[in-house]
């Protein structure tokens, strides 16, 4: 809401406070004002002039030579190029030495040989906003009202001395969508009086009753609680007075004609939207407020045909729709230059109904904005009367006796009980009863202390946002000043804070990976439907959840895996020559089996990894090597070890979709019951997919975190350091290539028994010497007894068992 | 004989003094002190001496041997030292060449900020509460005093999935879920960090996906002054001990009274700069006393319990803290951007 300080000062004194100071005070009291707009964009020495005569320029067809009385003692000769300049007009004249917006200075000049002592200005040259000007003032010089006084500074005639406060209103403060509301707010802040117009006293009616010409009825009372109308005849359509136009423009509303301007003016004044119908275009003359019927249409003021739906509220003339209630009037009953008789409407429509219609039609008007937030039921009739009296005054209208109405104003003032003790307890303040009552007085809320420490506060209907005692507490607090509320510490027992186990594990993952050289990323949760299904292994059977109105196809479904996003990130980085990546992300993927959701999808916490490029940087003393599957697997092994799960994890060769079939695995966790639970996948991205994305070898993994939360073991138990020496034996066997190292190690552990303390593969190779389909695996074994030194015989016996087990199970040949 | 020995001493010392390499030194050692050396040669004549002379000459001979040995020893040490020095010279490295760095990754800047905030509140006795990103209309709006068709719903544009399911636009639903879980018990002291989503065209300061951290405290006598005290303590820990707060009345459907919180500009310390648009203040928090309707929806009686809530945007805080000019960097995964935050 743009609040003109010139207008505002009609209702509340703004003496001794600058617009900027006022803006700051209003902001500190709860309504943000970002900026004070000055309507004067740099005008000086521009005054009202009277064009006494106009002659054609002797040497230029398009120029006129005017003699202008600008109240300067002697007449000025001014050359003017505007088509519409004419003798007898009052016009803005920039005198010699005048400043115009944009730094233009007016000097004595000769135009095609004729001296010119100033300039006659257009509205644009005065820095006025084109869009807000009446059509006839948009081109040529600005023709002023006839009664403008010669020599008066133009800034005062056009309201250009005005400063505008732009109220950035929160949804609850719709009371300040009116000058009246703004006045009460400012008066409360400054502690000054409010004086408002008294429409009932101003209004003069003729004896002929309105009700003998028009009637109104409400067929949908749940959507409209009160509908009032006046009948005004014999209006003369003309521009509205300049002062009114100035105020409308200050508020950002374009002047149109006196009737429309008055309805807009009163809407700005009272916050109550009004509508004027051309009464002679209402076929039946009997207004009926009802819901639209299936298939009905209406051409609105903007010339568009609107298809109406049964939830939309209409104003009809008993025969056809003539307006979309509270949103926009119909074109057919619009006030035009030929309008003589009008039906003036002021009503209270239901906010939700108006909101639904305006949203659905994408039609938001000044009126709908106000109705949506519920207008003041107490302003319906005062606004109607105010507009009627202005129409009588400025449009020569005859106001017929009486208001024709249906429904009733629910305009009783609420009384809210406030405990004085609660107020101070709630805020942590020590306000006195007097201070509290003074603040209510400033707000024009009547407060009476009926019982000990109890206030009964009467809330004016304009403040529909105040319904509870806490709302009153807020009013007290904001006018007392939030800065004056003390700062205290919470009373009562202290509580220990902390992380839950999942939270602690996520932090540990972050610590572990960042310390290991991995960079954390955060990607978007929305993705393309085709990308969403690239890596389905962990969310098998899931249907990607669709947004009902996505912003684009690329971001139209919820991710079921983070790997497609990590691939996108790899591509983004590769395009910037950043090839060596070790990325991780911890986030949610969404799992649902429903095509159309009826319940929330499952949200699975996942750790995702992406590794590509080389290990370490190329440097004078280091030649980087390409990363491979085992860099990725090693990272996971470190993680599982860190969480105390080393022994509980199995890697099984597998071909999950999206992965290289020979270089991928599923990860299982063996839970307490000995069950294998799938918790993740890892491996190289399928080479076709790599190629499609223009990437080299990329390794990715994703791990479900819930099983880790459930099974992670934080219990560290000290183990006595070995007191007896270990015996180390190495063994190299030739086996079929298909034999997995994991199986060899498992057999070794089984065969060696308790003496085997550690076993490790230290070399694997293939070669023609070994024969087709064979590989050599070299394994080192460490034997130790905790209580004594092992004898050579014991070690040899255990080791012999290992060798024969391998020979038997895998037809392993011992290499010498 | 004594003269012979003295002459030998003179000769040996003269020769040893001129020695320049280890080989010559060893040769001289053999020449004078070896089994067939000059000294042995002279001493062979000892047998011809009288019993009185013998010990005297023996003494002289020992002196001569000692002198020669001493000189050889010191020469040898000098050579060794020189040799060591030469070797060390040869082993010199160019200390300006780069070393092998430990590999260091980095936490995402948003998580750095979130973790810092979490730690401060944990220190103040808070727990971290979490909830789903796909929410029901009830938890995201209705339970927060935002019934359907409420004009305040315009404040947030929502990604709907169905009429009843949506991407949460705030982490406040976690507050309701926490209240329900607490079943009316106090105190409640939580913060709720998480991703939220709003239909917004992306630009330098808007992202359809971003983070929020909200806090909720419910107790028997929680006052607005406690809210101010809590926020002051938080911002002083987060932004430095000289940071001040300024509350401005505002509106949120789920709090009453409500406030926007301005914090002393961390860049200029309040003197005014480009970041704070020369006001000295930055708006980074919203807060208020929990609305009685919200308490009721969460299972608390507003006549018995009161509470406060606050919320902030880690994206905005991170942008201010690090001077980042475009919010989209956070979600783009460009390592040239992310690595800048991979340190203390």
From TrEMBL, chain A:
Superkingdom per UniProt: Bacteria
Subcellular location, principal: cytoplasm
GO biological process, one term: phenylalanyl-tRNA aminoacylation
FDX-ACB domain mapped to chain residues: 722-815
Catalyzed reactions per annotation: tRNA(Phe) + L-phenylalanine + ATP = L-phenylalanyl-tRNA(Phe) + AMP + diphosphate + H(+)
EC id: 6.1.1.20
GO molecular-function terms, A-Z: ATP binding; catalytic activity, acting on a protein; magnesium ion binding; phenylalanine-tRNA ligase activity; transferase activity; tRNA binding
Record keywords: Aminoacyl-tRNA synthetase, ATP-binding, Cytoplasm, Ligase, Magnesium, Metal-binding, Nucleotide-binding, Protein biosynthesis, RNA-binding, tRNA-binding
Domain B5: start-end pairs: 411-487
Localization per record: Cytoplasm
Enzyme class at the top of the EC tree: ligase
Assigned GO CC terms: phenylalanine-tRNA ligase complex
Domain TRNA-binding stretches: 40-155
Free-text comment on the cofactor: Binds 2 magnesium ions per tetramer.
Ligase recorded as keyword: yes
InterPro entries named among the record's database cross-references: aa-tRNA-synth_II/BPL/LPL, B3/B4_tRNA-bd, DNA-bd_dom_put_sf, Fdx_antiC-bd, Fdx_antiC-bd_sf, NA-bd_OB-fold, Phe-tRNA-ligase_IIc_bsu, Phe-tRNA-ligase_IIc_bsu_bact
UniProt: Mg(2+) binding residues: 465, 471, 474-475
Cofactors: Mg(2+)
Family, similarity comment: Belongs to the phenylalanyl-tRNA synthetase beta subunit family. Type 1 subfamily.
Assembly with partners or alone: Tetramer of two alpha and two beta subunits.
Name recorded for this polypeptide: Phenylalanine--tRNA ligase beta subunit
From TrEMBL, chain B:
Reaction(s) catalysed by this chain's protein: tRNA(Phe) + L-phenylalanine + ATP = L-phenylalanyl-tRNA(Phe) + AMP + diphosphate + H(+)
Gene Ontology molecular function: ATP binding; catalytic activity, acting on a protein; magnesium ion binding; phenylalanine-tRNA ligase activity; transferase activity; tRNA binding
UniProt-listed InterPro entries: aa-tRNA-synth_II, aa-tRNA-synth_II/BPL/LPL, Phe-tRNA-synth_IIc_asu, Phe-tRNA_ligase_II_N, Phe_tRNA_ligase_alpha1_bac, Phenylalanyl-tRNA_Synthase, tRNA-bd_arm
Keywords: Aminoacyl-tRNA synthetase, ATP-binding, Cytoplasm, Ligase, Magnesium, Metal-binding, Nucleotide-binding, Protein biosynthesis
Transmembrane parts of this sequence: none
The keyword ATP-binding appears for this protein: yes
Family assignment from sequence similarity: Belongs to the class-II aminoacyl-tRNA synthetase family. Phe-tRNA synthetase alpha subunit type 1 subfamily.
Protein name, UniProt field: Phenylalanine--tRNA ligase alpha subunit
């Amino acid at each position: 809401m743009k609040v003109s300080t010139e207008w505002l000062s009609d209702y509340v004194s703004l003496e001794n406070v600058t617009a900027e100071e006022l803006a700051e005070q209003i902001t500190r009291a709860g309504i943000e004002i970002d900026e004070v707009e000055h309507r004067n964009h740099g005008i000086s020495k521009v005054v009202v002039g009277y064009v006494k005569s106009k002659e054609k320029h002797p040497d230029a067809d398009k120029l006129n030579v005017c003699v202008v009385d600008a109240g300067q003692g002697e007449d000025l000769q001014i050359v003017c190029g505007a088509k519409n300049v004419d003798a007898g007009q009052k016009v803005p004249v920039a005198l010699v030495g005048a400043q115009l917006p944009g730094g233009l200075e007016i000097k004595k000049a000769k135009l095609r040989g004729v001296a010119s002592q100033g300039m006659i200005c257009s509205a644009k040259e005065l820095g006025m906003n084109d869009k807000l000007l009446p059509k006839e003032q948009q081109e040529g010089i600005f023709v002023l009202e006839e009664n403008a006084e010669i020599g008066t500074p133009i800034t005062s005639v056009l309201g250009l001395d005005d400063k505008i406060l732009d109220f950035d209103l929160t949804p609850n403060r719709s009371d300040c969508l009116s000058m009246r509301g703004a006045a009460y707010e400012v008066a409360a802040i400054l502690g000054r009086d409010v004086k408002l117009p008294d429409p009932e006293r101003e209004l003069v009616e003729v004896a002929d009753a309105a009700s003998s010409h028009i009637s109104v009825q409400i067929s949908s009372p749940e959507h409209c609680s009160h509908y009032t109308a006046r009948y005004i005849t014999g209006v003369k359509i003309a521009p509205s007075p300049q002062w009114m136009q100035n105020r409308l423009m200050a508020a950002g509303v374009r002047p149109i004609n006196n009737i429309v301007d008055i309805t807009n003016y009163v809407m700005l004044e009272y916050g109550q939207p009004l509508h004027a119908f051309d009464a002679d275009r209402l076929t039946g003359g009997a207004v009926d407020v009802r819901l639209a019927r299936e298939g009905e249409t209406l051409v609105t003021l903007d010339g568009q045909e609107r298809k109406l739906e049964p939830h939309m509220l209409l104003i009809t003339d008993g025969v056809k729709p003539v307006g979309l209630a509270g949103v926009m009037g119909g074109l057919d009953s619009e006030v035009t230059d030929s309008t003589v008789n009008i039906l003036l409407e002021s009503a209270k429509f239901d906010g939700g109904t108006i909101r639904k219609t305006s949203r659905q039609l994408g039609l938001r008007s000044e009126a709908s904005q106000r109705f949506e937030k519920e207008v003041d039921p107490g302003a319906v009739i005062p606004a109607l009367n105010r507009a009627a009296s202005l129409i009588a005054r400025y449009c020569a209208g005859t106001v017929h006796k009486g208001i024709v109405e249906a429904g009733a104003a629910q305009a009783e003032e609420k009384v809210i009980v406030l405990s004085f003790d609660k107020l101070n307890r709630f805020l942590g303040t020590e306000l006195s009863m007097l201070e509290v009552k003074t603040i209510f007085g400033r707000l024009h809320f009547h407060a009476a202390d009926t019982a000990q420490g109890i206030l009964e506060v009467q809330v004016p209907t304009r403040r529909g946002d105040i319904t509870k005692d806490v709302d009153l507490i807020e009013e007290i607090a904001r006018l007392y000043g939030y800065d004056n509320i003390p700062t205290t510490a919470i009373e009562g027992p202290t509580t220990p804070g902390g992380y839950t186990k999942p939270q602690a594990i996520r932090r540990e993952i972050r610590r572990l990976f960042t310390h290991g050289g991995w960079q954390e990323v955060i990607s978007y949760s929305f993705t393309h439907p085709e990308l969403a299904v690239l890596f389905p292994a962990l969310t098998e059977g899931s249907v990607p959840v669709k947004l009902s109105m996505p912003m684009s196809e690329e971001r139209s479904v919820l991710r079921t895996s983070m790997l497609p996003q990590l691939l996108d990130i790899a591509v983004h980085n590769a395009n910037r020559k950043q090839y060596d990546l070790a990325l991780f992300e911890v986030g949610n993927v969404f799992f649902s089996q429903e095509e159309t959701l009826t319940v929330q999808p499952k949200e699975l916490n996942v750790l995702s990894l992406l590794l590509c490029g080389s290990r370490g940087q190329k440097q004078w003393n280091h030649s980087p090597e390409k990363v491979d599957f085992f860099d990725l697997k090693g990272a996971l092994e470190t993680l599982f070890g860190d969480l105390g799960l080393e022994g509980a994890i199995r890697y099984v060769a597998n071909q999950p979709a999206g992965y290289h079939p020979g270089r991928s695995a599923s990860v299982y966790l063996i839970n307490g019951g000995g069950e294998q639970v799938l918790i993740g996948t890892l491996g190289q991205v399928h080479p076709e997919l790599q190629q499609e994305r223009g990437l080299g070898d990329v390794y990715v993994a994703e791990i479900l975190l819930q099983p880790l939360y459930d099974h992670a073991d934080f219990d560290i138990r000290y183990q006595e350091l070995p007191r007896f020496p270990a015996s180390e034996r190495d063994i190299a066997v030739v086996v079929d290539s298909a034999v997995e190292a994991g199986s060899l190690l498992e057999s070794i552990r089984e065969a060696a028994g308790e003496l085997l303390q550690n076993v490790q593969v230290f070399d694997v190779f293939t070669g023609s010497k070994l024969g087709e389909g064979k590989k050599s695996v070299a394994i080192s074994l460490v034997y130790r007894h905790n209580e004594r030194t092992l004898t050579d015989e014991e070690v040899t016996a255990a080791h012999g068992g290992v060798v024969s087990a391998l020979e038997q199970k895998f037809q392993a040949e011992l290499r010498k | 004989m004594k003269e012979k020995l003295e002459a030998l001493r003179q000769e040996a010392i003269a020769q040893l003094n001129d020695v320049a390499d280890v080989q010559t030194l060893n040769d001289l050692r053999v020449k004078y002190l070896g089994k067939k050396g000059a000294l042995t040669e002279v001493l062979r004549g000892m047998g011809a001496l009288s019993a009185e002379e013998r010990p005297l000459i023996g003494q002289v001979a020992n002196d001569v041997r000692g002198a020669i040995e001493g000189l050889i020893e010191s020469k040898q040490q000098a050579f060794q030292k020189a040799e060591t020095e030469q070797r060390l010279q040869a082993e010199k490295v160019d200390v300006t060449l780069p070393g092998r760095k430990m590999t260091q990754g980095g936490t995402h800047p948003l998580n750095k900020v979130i973790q810092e905030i979490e730690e401060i509140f944990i220190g103040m006795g808070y727990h971290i509460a979490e909830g789903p990103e796909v929410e029901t209309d009830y938890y995201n709006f209705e339970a927060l005093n935002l019934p359907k068709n409420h004009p305040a719903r315009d404040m947030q544009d929502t990604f709907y999935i169905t009429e009843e399911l949506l991407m949460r636009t705030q982490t406040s639903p976690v507050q309701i879920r926490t209240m329900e879980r607490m079943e009316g018990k106090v105190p409640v002291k939580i913060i709720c960090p998480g991703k939220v989503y709003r239909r917004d065209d992306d630009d330098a300061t808007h992202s359809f996906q971003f983070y929020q951290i909200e806090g909720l405290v419910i107790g028997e006598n929680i006052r607005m002054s406690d809210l101010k005290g809590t926020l002051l303590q938080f911002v002083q820990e987060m932004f430095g001990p000289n940071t001040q707060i300024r509350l401005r009345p505002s509106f949120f459907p789920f709090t009453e009274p409500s406030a926007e919180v301005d914090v002393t500009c961390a860049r200029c310390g309040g003197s005014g700069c480009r970041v704070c648009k020369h006001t000295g203040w930055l708006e980074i928090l919203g807060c208020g006393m929990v609305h009685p309707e919200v308490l009721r929806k969460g299972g608390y009686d507003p006549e018995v319990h009161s509470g406060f809530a606050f919320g902030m945007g880690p994206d905005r805080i991170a942008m201010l803290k690090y001077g980042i000019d475009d919010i989209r960097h956070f979600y783009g995964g460009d390592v040239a951007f992310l690595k800048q935050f991979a340190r203390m």
